[in-house]
DNA sequence: GCGGATCGCTACATATATTGTAGCGTGGCG
DNA sequence: CGCCACGCTACAATATATGTAGCGATCCGC
């Protein structure tokens, strides 16, 4: 564990040091619950932190809070007082690319156990 | 830790019990290195397990092996003897949806530290 | 103002997943 | 054979996620 640059305490998504934004993005999205959170906010939905917990199969608030903070810092999610968490404009753009995943998942599941 | 169904030792992607394929897919893709692995196999690339390790910033072989096995079982990646790991037809279909992420990541990174 | 309910969020101990290092068995090639 | 690279695994150390409980703040009806 002596790799990864001298200073990488909290901020700075993994791979962001490489200067390749795609790596930073893939790392951010490849953390547990991140994709799920974005998915649950589809269709301009807004969820309170506790509604999110319910939506995410009662995931622990610790990690949801962590992920929501990361996504807020990344500018993909925003917290609107009195309303809850929502996708930002940027977040919606990102989600656009995930939408076809739904159809893909259906097709994929049919080939799973074959 | 007494949730998550009685029998869920190894097989069975999380969320697959819900009968919603998208959840199973999001869970599979939301594991560390999974998105990165798929990304490194873009453009019909084929990588040996050790080349993959190099491509993935010297990630530990343990987890790469685990992820590659999961992806093989999911039918998204295949191992061709004497050639290496490659995306399957299904895997390529999936990757198609990720391709626009590259452009998105560029745009996103510019808004990061503002 | 005082309950009661809910909000976003955090502490803390436990369980699980990931990491890094070393090395196995196999196969190709000189 | 000696040498090298392959796919893959064991194992101890570390990092990360989980589950439970509860904080302070806010809103609302009484």
Describe, in plain words, how this protein is organized in 3D.
The structure is a homodimer of 114-residue chains. Chain A is mainly alpha-helical and 114 residues long. Chain A has one domain (33-112): Arc Repressor Mutant, subunit A, CATH 1.10.10. Helix content of chain A is 52%, strand content 7%. Chain A is built from six helices and two strands; from the N terminus they run ααααββαα. Chain A has helices spanning 21-29, 34-40, 49-55, 61-73, 89-98, 100-112; strands at residues 77-80, 84-87. Chain A has a two-stranded antiparallel ribbon with strand order 1-2. Chain A is globular. Mean pLDDT of chain A is 84; it is low at 1-12. At the A-B interface, helix 1, helix 2, helix 5 and helix 6 of A face helix 1, helix 2, helix 5 and helix 6 of B. Chain A binds a DNA duplex (30 and 30 nucleotides) through residues 1-3, 31-33, 48-50, 58-63, 65-66, 68-69, 79, 82, 84.
* Portion in beta strands of chain A: 5-15%
C-alpha-based Rg of chain A, rounded: 16 Å
Oligomer: homodimer
Order of helices and strands of chain A: HHHHEEHH
Uncertain residue ranges of chain A: 1-12
Which structural class should the secondary elements of chain A be placed in? mainly alpha
Termini gap of chain A:
41 Å
